[in-house]
Amino acid sequence: MKKEEEFKKKLTKEQYHVLREKGTEMPFTGKLLHNKDKGMYKCMACGVQLFSSDTKFDSGTGWPSFTEANKKNVILKEDVSLGMRRVEVICKNCGSHLGHVFDDGLKGKKHYCINSCALDFEKK
Fold it and tell me: Is 113 a catalytic residue?
């Protein structure tokens, strides 16, 4: 079976659109946006660890936001789509789109703005 067929079977339509087609979920709709539990945020498509709950903060943007990523498991790539210049965050393991990173985070840190539906959460 081809890899994309496997993703289509595993993921919901919205998850597939975001993760595999570089879509964006509607702000303030994600199930993990207000999650305050301690644990690890993982890629919904492949399960690799991406963000610790210790780095999550409320950015007010409507998407889960983090100051740091597990750098060995993400790739940052220039994204000039939609007439904007941004930096895309991609799962290094499976190549799925997660969101974007900006330089407007807390105390000069990065702001990883991630689609909630691109994430799975493993509670500590």
Answer: yes
- Count of C-beta atoms within a 10 Å radius of residue 47: 13
pTM for this predicted structure: 0.92
pLDDT tens for each residue of 14-38: 999 999 999 999 999 999 999 999 9
> Does residue 2 have a pLDDT over 70?
no
List C-alpha distances in Å: 96 to 46, 90, 118, 124. Answer: 9, 6, 8, 25
Question: 43, 91, 113, 117: which is the annotated catalytic residue?
Answer: 113
